[in-house]
Amino acid sequence: MPEWLLVWLDQNDIFTSSTLFHYWEGLVTTVQLVFLSLVIGFCIALPLAVLRTNPRWWISGPVWLFTYLFRGTPLLIQLYIIYYGVAQIPGIQQTFWWLIFREPFYPALLAFTLNTAAYTTEIFRGALAATPKGEIEAAKAYGMSWFLRLRRIVIPSAARRAVQAYSNEVIFMLHASAIASVVTIVDLTGAARNIYSRFYAPFDAFLFVALLYMLLTFALVFAFRKLENHLLRHQRPAAS
Question: What is the pTM of this model?
């Protein structure tokens, strides 16, 4: 770090090198929490979306119930139930699971993962259901099996339709991660609260963290714009 910047930070009352490092730790925690919940939630949602499109009610019904419960209740309530409820399970404190769930990061990760999995399942279900019948009939005419049609035709086609809605879900999860601070996780919002309580400067602390959230959001919008252009490049008119 340049010497002039260190001098300015040391002379500043709020944004010193120690407080900026505290923000950096909160940023790392936020990125870890959001990234892991999105990756795990994506892996859960894709097979659930396929099951959700099954016409048999005893296959699609449990998936519908899962998505209905987690989409119909606030994420904050889900976080409270998991964070405080796991400790109430009889005998769990004598098992190895307690070594994991006694830390607030993992209950928050579980709550965020299940929540985003429910929303992502419905996003993918809609994209899968909108697959043109002609594409499926053409794949059948080529003799493709159900799994081969799913892998080569249905899922790639659905991904192009789902990318816009899924980008909104990713940005929502980034913003929703701010509630992790209510269970003592020092994420970006938790870092801002700590700095506010130390210096009694709410506007400085929270405006700075709002700027960081905006920068992360713009980075995600840019990344998904590039991804969308890549997936839909076949729709661009050919160069003359």
Answer: 0.89
CA dist list (Å): 216 to 28, 35, 167, 188: 12, 12, 13, 11
d(CA 165, CA 7): 45
* CB-CB contact of 36 with 114 (8 Å): no
Helices 202-231, 17-52: inter-axial angle, 10-degree rounding: 40
User: Which distant-in-sequence residues (6+ apart) come within 8 Å of 123 by Cβ?
Assistant: 45, 49, 162, 165, 166, 169
Report phi then psi at 91, rounded to 5: 80, -5
Q: How far apart are CA 70 and CA 32, in angstroms?
A: 22
Phi (first) and psi of residue 105, to 5 degrees: -60, -40
Give, in degrees to the nearest 5, the angle at Cα 204 between 203 and 207: 70
Predicted confidence (pLDDT) per residue in 128-173, tens digit: 999 888 888 888 888 888 888 888 888 888 988 999 999 999 999 9
CB 212 within 8 A of CB 27: yes
* Cβ neighbours, 10 Å, residue 90: 6
In single-letter form, the type of residue at position 42 comes to: F
CA angle 17-191-32, nearest 5°? 100
The tokens of 233 are what? 């490049």
Task: Give the distance from CA 151 to its chain's centroid.
Answer: 24
Nearest residue to 162 (alpha-carbon basis) of 75, 42, 27, 54: 42
Q: Are 174 and 188 in contact (CB under 8 A)?
A: no
